[in-house]
Design a protein that fits this description.
Arc Repressor Mutant, subunit A; Immunoglobulin-like; six-stranded antiparallel β-sheet; two-stranded antiparallel sheet; single chain
Length: 251
Amino acid sequence: MDDNYYYKFIEPDRSLAGFVESLGMFHNQSDQAKEVVVLPDGRIDLFFVQTASEAFQVILIGLETAPEQRSIPPKTRAFTIGFKPLAAECILHTSIADLLNSAKYLSDGFWDFNPDDLNDFDAFYQKASQKITSLLPAVIDERKRKLFELIYSSNGEMSVEELSEKVFWSSRQINRYFNKQFGLSLKVFCSILRFRASLGHIAQGKFFPELDFADQTHFIKEIKKFSGVVPKELSKNKNDRFVLLSILKQQ
């Protein structure tokens, strides 16, 4: 890992696991911008960011379906909450369909966070966890809860038809919900989760499909679609630019 670029991620308390995947931080300590490639990972990201040249910002980033080159400004500190999609409705109380491959700025005082909260990650973790806990809904649509449980436990490998049968919710209604709430179909979301699961294998130097791909050609095609490069090049991770892969290699 680049000595000037530090990051870490912590899993949430078990009570939040259905809505939050991780809480983390990025810190570019260098005087130079850090070029990274953000890969689709099926998360909604809430960023609290402070740079040397800009004021404190809160940014909500929707789901992504393609790799995106980003530049992390010098002397940037960012704390982040990585939400699972169900959190959009249950915690953030909003549709993120219009944020597909996009983002928006939220008010500086969102959830009562301020620049001082970026001085201590452990304190941020506690404050964010308490805030999310206070927003947990009393009742959750059982179909949606079960649907996401199955999607994640299968790494996106279950078909839409099979998921529909198991949660007693028609495929048409599920896709209508996904498109209205998240801006993409269930099938595309599942493909993203399967790609992400494959990154763990690639991080271990495995360049052949371990999951339900039709064949090696299909595997390579899917990896390139979501990362921009073939599996072997992705594994090399030159200049530590694929942050998600770097994190997986450390685990």
